[in-house]
């Protein structure tokens, strides 16, 4: 089954060989893109979608999300907006709710958030565990996530759970030993929350090194709440991504610039914790590859909206609209080491978004407005 999408007023491809086209068309053949070019030269196809001058961009790649949980923390959010600081301590509240939930509740929570994401243009999503923190609950979280995405991340090292209070090294041994072994069939990546109050540099190194030995790719929650060793550890270990990157020294920025570790910025977290935003301009000017993602989780960033993150990045992190759209699509693909998504070229996945707007600029220019007209995922209109 092939589909001709034509009448594209502006086609953002993210493919340097093609650039941005006007009056363009593309053909999806099954789940792959088969042709891209001027609308006037488009070949015939089984079906036809005329988007009447609208803009088309690659589907968003949300490379950092925590959608496997039960309950919410609306009261914690309200307290924060009344002046309480964010510490990450609320993670344990969600761990208790998640452990108590049945499989069907967790599964329907994941699918509800995935539906929200799809409606807002996200066609690739990474999903972390990290609210189970027992062998059985981490396996369960990743097994359920793997039902809907290949980009699953083991975050057993989210916090030290209450039953290991005072014995963090015993918990690190569990995470890097039996827990890692049990989750490996369901995980592509391993992540650590490397932060004061969670895991220090030595503990993060032990867990990530064990994960790499088990064949998992590496990602790190680094330098979110304060300065720390996370970013440089990510670069040293060849992690695909260092995430948050809010508090960076010049040495951290230099390390990222000299590496192929992506800096994944998560402005929903700064918005929802009322914290200073990371300085994307500083990273971009230094030559660092930047991705944008939602960090969707019930504590620090309960949003599934990539357009919202783009608007924040442009307004408050000094990204241009074009840089922000690239970071939310191609940047996310780099952070997941994927070359088949985040780009519209022949052979890539037919994942794209038709905007209810003539240009990608409108994503930041019209904040909060539902501009997602049609989403194609694997060539299929959603
Ligand atoms: O990325 N930083 C650690 N994990 C999440 C927050 C999780 C939570 O508060 O429940 C984050 O912001
Ligand atoms: Fe996170």
Quick description:
The protein has 13 helices and 17 strands. The protein is of the alpha/beta class and 382 residues long. The strands form 3 sheets. Strands 1, 2, 3, 4, 5, 15, 16 and 17 form an 8-stranded mixed beta sheet that branches. A 7-stranded parallel beta sheet has the order 8-9-10-11-12-13-14. A two-stranded parallel sheet has the order 6-7.
Q: Describe it for me?
A:
There is one protein chain. Strands 1, 2, 3, 4, 5, 15, 16 and 17 form an eight-stranded mixed β-sheet that branches. A seven-stranded parallel β-sheet has the order 8-9-10-11-12-13-14. It starts with a strand and ends with a strand. With 382 residues, it is α/β, with parallel strands linked by helices. The chain is globular, with a radius of gyration of 20 Å. The protein is built from 13 helices and 17 strands. Bound molecules: N-(iminomethyl)-L-glutamic acid and fe (iii) ion. Fe (iii) ion binds at residues 64, 66, 221, 295, 297.
